[in-house]
Amino acid sequence: MALSRKVLAAGAALAALAAASQASASGFYLQEQSSRGAGRAYSGEVADSGAASLWWNPAAIAGVEHAEVYGGLHAVLVNSKVTDKGSTITRPVPVTTGVGGVGTATDVINDGVVPNFAGAWRLNDKIVLGVSMAAPYNFTTEYEANSWARYDAIKSRLTTADLQATLAYRVNDKLDLGVGISGVYADAELSNALPNASPLQADGRQELTGDGWGYGWTVGAQFHATPALTFGASYRSKTEHTLKGDVAVSGILAPLPTASNRTIAGEATITTPWMANVGARWAVTPKTTLNAQVSRVGWSEFDAIRVTFAGGGSVSEQNYKDITTVALGVDHQLTPRLTLRGGVQKDPTPTPDEGRTARVPDGDRMLYAVGATWAAKPNLNLDIAATYISFDDSEIHRTDATATGSSVTLNGLATGHATVLSTGVRWTF
Fold it and tell me: Is the keyword Glycoprotein assigned to this protein (predicted)?
């Protein structure tokens, strides 16, 4: 294989690494950033108060009177199935055959635990300092090495940590403002099979790793129209990431150039979307509060994957679309120490029908949630929640040229659902 082809192979692999990172953020963006909010399907979070709402609005802590700490854990349990519907491969010979392999993959989306933390400390009568840690884009999908989807995906893992510093300012009894700055660390791992020239030869393998930091900002406001009615609005900026990685290729057999079995370095630049939230909380009675929230997510920022490496670069155009989520919920104080809540959310996918990958077999979602808060002490609240997520069936249609000169056309069907169990604690001191 000529040097230029080696470089192109590495570039394509790094592009795939970036695509998996970005696609995971869309198909597997994790809203689980508040155990209290989970119980009402994240409705009204932009208008709620306290450290537990910092992800949604930096102004949420402006009214805290005492230091406050929140910590939460969310267990994400996914049931998923991805089925082959006639995928084919055209090798360099050329001859077109079925991709072969096991035709049904189950539980490809791994279960996981999502942690989050936030704290708020009043500096004076006007200013509150906040810090938070969120994990908004974390997922792992994994197929067997002999799966029908192996040329597109074997393992895809993305881990992120969003570290945010916040200042909130109480203008007056009616208006609170907030601003935050985030550093986002991303670490990714990706692997897939590579077809050799003959279907009688064992597959080769391509493995990728990459990581890097990105930076963003957020602003927000809350308007307390009356003691019973609060409106909130916030904006979280897009974040540009540069992932530096290594691509390791092995198992390439003659007549393909065996010199392809090597490791090469490069980097890919991607952009995660902006998010705009508006919402309200209305205490219709002293015990019952209604919540509503609309979020617009700017996935059209993901216009391309730009890859650079020794000797050149590449640009891969994408077709993600902006989406709007809508959530409604209710809180009801059943007793002085026990509050019950529930909610529902419509969450469409930004992934295009044509070009959807087996790495992220995503579809439109509906969330149904229930939760509760137990005031164990005047300064200690315990939150629990359970969420059922229904995924619409989604079709996989994608054609890609592999680094070994074959063309793979994937046709499949993805189905599934998920359950999320959340718990958290809020402590003031």
Answer: no
Strands (E), 227-273: 229-236, 239-250, 263-272
Taking alpha carbons only, the member of 279, 63, 68 closest to residue 171 is 63
Question: Is the distance from CB of 160 to CB of 139 less than 8 angstroms?
Answer: no
Per DSSP, 301 falls in state: G
The pLDDT > 90 percentage for the chain reads 66
d(CA 340, CA 327): 17
Q: Are 176 and 198 in contact (CB under 8 A)?
A: no
Rounded distance between C-alpha atoms, residue 118 and residue 134, angstroms: 8
In the chain, the amino acid numbered 116 is N
Pairing verdict, β 365-377 and 380-391? antiparallel
pLDDT tens across 151-184, in order? Answer: 988 998 888 899 999 999 999 999 999 999 999 9
pLDDT of residue 254: 94
Specify whether the CB–CB gap between 41 and 327 falls below 8 A.
yes
Measured CA to CA, the distance from residue 249 to residue 257 in angstroms comes to: 12
In the predicted model, residues of the chain with pLDDT beneath 50 are 1-13, 15-26
CB-based contacts of 2, cutoff 8 Å, min separation 6: none
DSSP string for 407-427: EEEEEEEEEEEEEEEEEEEEE
For 155, phi then psi, to 5°, come to -125, 135
pLDDT score at 1: 39
The C-alpha atoms of residue 316 and residue 7 are separated, in whole angstroms, by 15
pTM score, two decimals? 0.89
Q: In the block, which residue shows the tokens 């209305």? A: 282
Let me know: does 45 contact 70? Beta carbons within 8 Å.
no
pLDDT at 28: 61
User: Tens of pLDDT along 290-299?
Assistant: 999 999 999 8
Domains of the chain, CATH where assigned: 3-428 (2.40.160.60)
Please provide the DSSP assignment of 309-376 as one string. Answer: ETTEEEEEE-----EEEEEEEEEEEEETTEEEEEEEEEE---S-STT--TTS----EEEEEEEEEEEE
Give the DSSP H/E element, type plus range, for residue 91.
strand 88-91
In the prediction, which pLDDT does 4 show? 39
Q: What pLDDT digit, counting tens, does each position of 48-83 carry?
A: 999 999 999 999 999 999 999 999 999 999 998 999
Q: Is the peptide bond before 94 cis (omega within 30 degrees of 0)?
A: yes
